[in-house]
Write a structure and sequence with these properties.
single chain, ten-stranded mixed sheet, three-stranded antiparallel sheet, 25% strand, chloroplast, sodium, EC 5.3.1.16, His6/HISN3
Length: 314
């Protein structure tokens, strides 16, 4: 097998399709028109055969690419919780974005884990390196959403602006959709278990909202967003395995593209996500990747991704 250099290290080049990896969109960039079906009197989008995709990530903290256990992130230390950093890279966000661009990986996300100027500058570097190739999240609101889209973000990812003080602010959501369009919005529905159900969490995943992640919630929010991003917060960044129950829920009930993140540490778990999510849930891998200091080979994950695309086209 041939090799190439990734950040100065030799790596195997995985087999890949002859053609570029297609996005789940028409050439004009608009979402595919999907048929609907009626369920309980509500129009639901019928899930169509799409390949499961690997969605890459660039997490930025104080201007540096890092992998952090998200549940330990705080604006201030008030409860003695120490920030747990799994990895800090000496490579720039633009270098990671160029790597993903080279491998034809679309729909990944750049997340600013802080509102500092250094993180904003670093995030813009990534967007400029791969315009239209990545989504951007972290502190997004109606004042800055369009600016980031103009700077090259394919979508903006929103959580706390819409889910604040434990509740969903529908007026803010409608206002944001009116400004940038549904086709540019990803709702981050990251959640934690509470009383046996998955509750959406906000404010660096420290506050439970009163919004439960279930079929009705996903159907309703899908009318305002192009995609969902869902971190399994209880397992995120800990390399302890995936939240299979959450993946199953997303695969059963999300009527729009959805990406799961949290706990992936082996290639076998990628296949488990594919199975549990009924082939409809994409996946993000962070701390476990070798490019972020883990043991899971980035090239193997890209090869897995490429094989998923080939299975659909054959």
């Amino acid at each position: 097998m041939a090799t190439r250099t990734i950040f100065g290290a030799r790596a195997r080049v995985p087999p890949s399709p002859l053609n570029p990896i297609p996005d789940r969109r028409n050439p004009n960039g608009k979402p595919l028109s999907l048929p609907t079906r009626r369920s309980n009197g509500v129009d639901r989008v019928s899930l169509v055969a799409c390949a499961v995709r690997f969605r890459p990530c660039i997490d930025i903290h104080k201007g540096k690419v890092k992998q952090i256990v998200g549940s330990t992130l705080r604006d201030t230390v008030v409860d003695g919780t120490a920030l747990v950093t799994n990895f800090e890279s000496d490579k720039s966000p633009a270098e990671f974005a160029n790597l993903y661009k080279e491998d034809g990986l679309t729909g990944g996300h750049v997340i600013m884990l802080g509102a500092d100027d250094a993180s904003r500058v670093a995030a813009l570097e990534a967007l400029h390196a791969y315009p239209g190739g990545m989504q951007l999240g972290g502190g997004i609101n109606s004042d800055n959403a369009m600016t980031y889209i103009k700077e090259g973000a394919s979508h903006v990812i929103v959580t706390s602006y819409v889910f604040s003080n434990g509740q969903m602010n529908l007026e803010r959501l409608k206002h944001l959709v009116g400004m940038i369009g549904k086709q540019r919005l990803v709702l981050d529905l990251s959640c934690r278990k509470k009383n046996g159900k998955y509750a959406i969490v906000t404010d660096r995943w420290q506050k439970f909202s009163d919004v439960i992640l279930e079929e009705q919630t996903l159907e309703f929010l899908a009318t305002y967003a192009d995609e969902f991003l869902v971190h399994g917060v209880d397992v995120e960044g800990k390399r302890l395995g995936i939240d299979e129950e959450l993946v199953t829920l997303l695969g059963c009930y999300s009527p729009i593209p959805v990406t799961y993140a949290g706990g992936v540490s082996t290639m076998e778990e990628l296949d488990r996500i594919k199975t549990a999510g009924k082939g409809h849930v994409d996946v993000t891998v962070g701390s476990s990747l070798d490019i972020f200091g883990g043991n899971l080979q980035y090239e193997d994950v890209v090869a897995w991704h490429n094989n998923q695309q080939l299975m659909v086209t054959q």
